[in-house]
Design brief:
alpha/beta, Rossmann fold, 2 domains, 5-stranded mixed beta sheet, 13 helices, 14 strands, 16% strand, globular, THDP-binding, glucose metabolism
């Protein structure tokens, strides 16, 4: 484990350069390094990596209390290049490289938040946040409640979460259900570039501890970013889901990378006359169950999709909340969950592929729910 972890520090995955089309590359040459900007009213393609970088840059510039710390975030520009260019711009006091000790630097960040600063604490992978679980839960999550609201803890814990590619069991867990279980935390899980930028800015401005679960495989993926999202004032409200695709036959609820799989499955099923409504949760806690209920009332069917394990998962919570609420009376079939396999993630690619929900699994679940 120690050797494997050292290798990830020296040669981390996900260090690919952002991918842009010809138009975006021209814009990069014309505009300042801080990020893509357009004077005309038009959407542009921005990778999730660049969107996160923009959000950090804008919030560091906006509020001098904001700082970033974590392993390799400064001189190395971040293990995944999320913090690229920020150390040169803001210096050692705002962008801080730490030793390989999550327990230590997370405790420092939590203490700084209690003292009035607004730290962004990066984990190289959320699997390593287990080293700091006491600081995240016992120190950050519970302090505001235990102090009767007199001690806010405005801190963001962020980094890649869930399965990547070929990193085996110790680097592949989804922590959405783990952290979503704990009162005192807000938990967000972005899919697109707009999600990533807007949620990170909202998390930094929030007075509560926020866990931001990103996905390593999405970092290099370009998404269309609207003119509104290019603004420095753009935020995505925490606790509000988004309908990514309208539909009438079945509701697909997901978060993070599987949202893309749901949209792919919906496109395939549309050719067969099945219209899926795709709900991008964006926030795990507090969960926007009202949007899910409204969709289920419309479609009368529910399928949840997640990369995490099935037992006590996000999908299990959604199904329970629907069963307990008024939307249950509108269901024409039992809700179905599509999840990761209930095993530690294997290293072999063919086994890994069979442990992660695929488009075909979502299509199968939809047809099972609709009895077609």
């Amino acid at each position: 484990m120690a050797a494997g972890r050292a290798l990830r520090l020296l040669a981390p995955l996900g260090c690919r350069l952002p991918q842009h089309g010809p138009a975006a590359r021209r814009l990069l040459l014309q505009q300042p390094r801080r990020g893509l900007r357009l004077s005309a009213a038009a959407a542009i393609q921005v990778t999730v990596r660049d969107a996160l970088n923009q959000a950090l840059d804008e919030e560091l510039e906006r509020d001098e209390r904001v700082f970033l710390l974590g392993e390799e975030v400064a001189q190395y520009d971040g293990a995944y290049k999320i913090s690229r260019g920020l150390w040169k711009k803001y210096g050692d006091k705002r962008i801080i490289d730490t030793p390989i000790s999550e327990m230590g630097f997370t405790g420092i960040a939590v203490g700084a938040a209690m003292a009035g600063l607004r730290p962004v604490c990066e984990f190289m992978t959320f699997n390593f946040s287990m080293q700091a679980i006491d600081q995240v839960i016992n120190s950050a999550a519970k302090t505001c409640y235990m102090s009767a609201g007199s001690i806010p803890v405005p801190i963001v814990f962020r980094g890649p979460n869930g399965a990547s590619a070929g990193v085996a069991a110790q680097h592949s867990q989804c922590f959405a259900a783990w952290y979503g279980h704990c009162p005192g935390l807000k938990v967000v899980s972005p899919w697109s570039s707009e999600d990533a930028k807007g949620l990170l800015k909202a998390a930094i401005r929030d007075d509560n501890p926020v866990v931001m679960l990103e996905n390593e495989l999405l970092y290099g993926v370009p998404f269309e970013m609207s003119e509104q999202a290019q603004s420095k004032d753009f935020v995505v409200p925490i606790g509000k889901a988004k309908i990514e695709r309208e539909g009438t036959h079945v509701t697909l609820v997901s978060h993070s990378r599987p949202v893309g799989h749901c949209l792919e499955a919906a496109a395939v099923l549309a050719k067969e006359g099945v219209e899926c409504e795709v709900v991008n949760l964006r926030t795990i806690r507090p969960m926007d169950i009202e949007t899910v209920e409204a969709s289920v009332i419309k479609t009368n069917h529910l399928v949840t999709v997640e990369g995490g394990w099935p037992q006590f998962g996000v999908g299990a919570e959604i199904c329970a909340r629907i069963m307990e609420g008024s939307a249950f009376n509108y269901l024409d079939a039992p809700a179905v969950r599509v999840t990761g396999a209930d095993v530690p993630m294997p290293y072999a690619k063919i086994l890994e592929d069979n442990c992660i929900p695929q488009v075909k699994d979502i299509i199968f679940a939809v047809k099972k729910t609709l009895n077609i």
